[in-house]
Amino acid sequence: MNAVFYIAKRYAFSKSKTKAINIITRIASIGIIVSSMALFVVLSVFSGLERYALSFTNLIDPDLVVLPTSGKSFELSTSQEQQLKTSTNIKAFSKIIEDRVIFTYGDKQIVAVIKAVDSNYVHTVDVTDYIVYGHWIQPNTNDAVLGNGLANELSAGMYSNDKLLEVLAMKPGKGLISMPEDAYVKLPLYPSGIYSLRNIETDNKYIYTDLRVGRDLFNYNPQQFSKIELKLQGSVKAATSELQNIFPDLQIKNRSQLNESLYKMLKTESLAIYLIFTLIIIVTLFCLTGALIMIVLEKKEHIKTLHHLGFTLKEIKKIFLYQGLILSGIGLTIGLFLGIVITLAQQHFELIEVSEGLPYPIVFNWNNGLLVVCTIIVLSVIASNIAASRIKILMNK
């Protein structure tokens, strides 16, 4: 066994003659255990919250979306459509016309997004699984499927005869408008269903209609669309590469890019919490640094003896560096083990609930464990090096 490591191990597991040093060392070890456990659990909780938050948006998000680089629409040629149909990476795709419009129902008026889809949309995303009342739109009709939030805001029922749901879109063009009613294209809609994703933003955003309604509303030609949503059967990378060749002038986005702001918010929150807990670990490791410095002072005569026996200054520094890493490693191992136990217990047995029937979201992820290990080791090396630097001062006295 390496002599330097052997001496470091003896120092780490032997009690000091000074009671204060033993107490400080225990406090530092307990602090490392608690902080590493807490850091792993908190990172696992944020992984769970991220999955929970994204689960609602991903319910009706396609695998990939083709969007115009500029403007609100693009034209899909016959050859491009044929390439999509024959692609081995694409299982299904849907042509969509989408824009913000005004909806009126009786004396109520709201601004929302109309999403006019073709008959293949139900094969691209599983939107019909979330219809809580009524049914999906019928092809070539003026049926409309409303989000639960929009239906409540408009007080709109299905196939109501006393009020008419109307959609209004600004007419394209230039020049002054003499009559306000001439500024809009107005079409009637007939609510046929209500969907709910248990997501306030999504339930308050979309009203689905047939693709023909979108064409009539925005005066689009048969080859003009706002986007194409795709369901894949191959890898995302391969499909993206193929789509970039088919649509060189358009942009291709995946699920994470569609919810970029939400991803950024969750990542920022996770980073902030990680930095806060890292600061706590740094404070904890000050105790370890203090304990090691006191041990160095206590072992002053031992250090001189080792130097006379032929140990270099670098080797003597390594003794205390290894000692700090051994103490940190033990605390890290115990803390990480406890963190994994807590995480798996909550994940499988749902011990803590946010509300009745809703367990606190948490996800076990090895990457979180690796992050904790790297954080503790790096900070421990720094803390141990600070303590070991005192040896040079002692050697010069």
Short description:
Strands 3-4-9-6-8-7 form a six-stranded mixed beta barrel. The chain has 397 residues and is α+β, with helices and mostly antiparallel strands. It is 54% helix and 21% strand.
Structural key phrases:
14 strands, 397 residues, alpha+beta
Structure description:
- The protein is built from 14 helices and 14 strands.
- The longest helix has 40 residues, at 19-58.
- The model has no long low-confidence stretch (mean pLDDT 88).
- Strands 3-4-9-6-8-7 form a six-stranded mixed beta barrel. Strands 2-10 form a two-stranded antiparallel sheet.
- It has helices at 3-13, 19-58, 78-86, 121-124, 148-154, 200-203, 211-218, 236-246, 255-258, 260-298, 300-308, 313-349, 366-388, 390-396, and strands at 64-68, 74-75, 90-105, 108-117, 131-134, 143-147, 165-170, 184-195, 206-210, 224-225, 227-232, 250-254, 353-355, 358-359.
- It is α+β, with helices and mostly antiparallel strands and 397 residues long.
**Low-pLDDT sequence parts:** none
Total count of strands:
14
Order of helices and strands: HHEEHEEHEEHEEHEHEEHEHHHHEEHH
Mean pLDDT: 88
> Structural class, from helix and strand content?
alpha+beta
Percentage of residues assigned to helices: 40-55%
Shape: elongated
Largest sheet: 6 strands, mixed, barrel
- Using only CA atoms, what is the Rg? 32 Å
Instruction: Give the terminus-to-terminus CA distance.
Output: 31 Å
Tally of helical segments: 14
